[in-house]
Amino acid sequence: MRKNILLIGGSHGIGFEIALKLYSEHNIFIASRTNENLGNLEVTHIPYDASKDEIDASVLPERIDGFVYCPGSINLKPFKTLSPLAFEEDMQINFMFLVKIVHNLLPKLKNSDQASLVFFSTVAVKIGMPFHTSIAAAKGAIEGFAKALAAEYAPQFRVNVIAPSLTDTPLAKRLLGNDKKKEVMNNRHPMKRVGQAEDIANIASFLLSDNSSWITGQVIGVDGGMSTLNIN
Ligand SMILES: NC(=O)c1ccc[n+]([C@@H]2O[C@H](COP(=O)([O-])OP(=O)(O)OC[C@H]3O[C@@H](n4cnc5c(N)ncnc54)[C@H](OP(=O)(O)O)[C@@H]3O)[C@@H](O)[C@H]2O)c1
């Protein structure tokens, strides 16, 4: 069946890679602030800024089968330099805007036989990492939200979370900005490389497909072994 899949974000990074994988088989709607990167890709772009706008539901189909929320942040600083406002901002973009849009889209998600929702966390929720207090807190909220939502709406919706480690996308460019940084980051991972957007898009595509119809309420680490292996 040709599904209607809404990507909040999808103009670049992991969301774009998901769109590339799925556009030929499904109807893809990308809601984001920019669309220059989309070129002639056969998707429907909806101008949308999660921090300002309500999504224009009238341009969306009545039935949404797949939903992915991509906006996020990597705000790594010592706790003492992170103001409460910085925590609030991370909470807004990662978590609160997600809650708001899922709430708005409930009627369209309920029109699907079994909607699949995919959110993003981070490896830094499962293992404590210095300088991650704000982002780990915001992504931890997503993990709790996703499990509770999955329980409340089973079997109608499936809700799963992908928890990546460092992945080479525009969001991570400050951490991977030169060869030295890349080498250090590659070596931190048991698999000796950071993630590529495609590594994460592969699992997201699976979670959006019927092949994962018995998987819900999961937080899936896609992290080059970072969250579970200690090889030092
Ligand atoms: N990359 C990593 O290392 C990494 C690691 C762990 C977790 N994650 C998580 O994985 C998810 C995807 O990350 P990514 O690396 O693909 O990020 P990215 O490269 O920054 O892409 C984010 C996407 O979301 C859109 N977006 C951002 N702010 C938005 C807003 N206010 N309103 C509407 N759309 C907005 C962007 O489009 P526009 O700019 O066009 O609006 C873009 O399409 C994030 O939640 C991130 O926290 C990433």
What class do helices, strands and sheet pairing give? alpha/beta
Distance between the termini: 47 Å
Whole-number average pLDDT?
97
Rg on CA atoms, Å: 17 Å
Global geometry: globular
Query: Beta-sheet strand percentage?
Result: 15-25%
List the helices and strands and how they pair.
Blueprint (H helix, E strand, L loop, with lengths): L3 E5 L4 H10 L4 E6 L11 E4 L18 E4 L14 H27 L4 E6 L2 H4 L6 H21 L3 E8 L2 E2 L10 H10 L6 E2 H12 L10 E4 L10
Parallel strand pairs: 1-2, 1-4, 2-3, 4-5, 5-6, 6-9, 7-8
Helix pairs in contact: 1-6, 2-4
Keywords: Oxidoreductase
Organism: Aquimarina mytili
Protein name: SDR family oxidoreductase
Walk me through what this model shows.
The chain has helices spanning 13-22, 84-110, 123-126, 133-153, 179-188, 197-208; strands spanning 4-8, 27-32, 44-47, 66-69, 115-120, 157-164, 167-168, 195-196, 219-222. The protein has 232 residues and is α/β, with parallel strands linked by helices. The strands form two sheets. A seven-stranded parallel β-sheet has the order 3-2-1-4-5-6-9, with helices on both faces. A two-stranded parallel ribbon has the order 7-8. Helix 1 (13-22) crosses helix 6 and helix 2 packs parallel to helix 4 (133-153). The relative contact order is 0.15. The model has no long low-confidence stretch (mean pLDDT 97). NADP nicotinamide-adenine-dinucleotide phosphate (NAP) binds at residues 8-15, 32-34, 48-51, 70-72, 120, 122, 164, 166-167, 169-172.
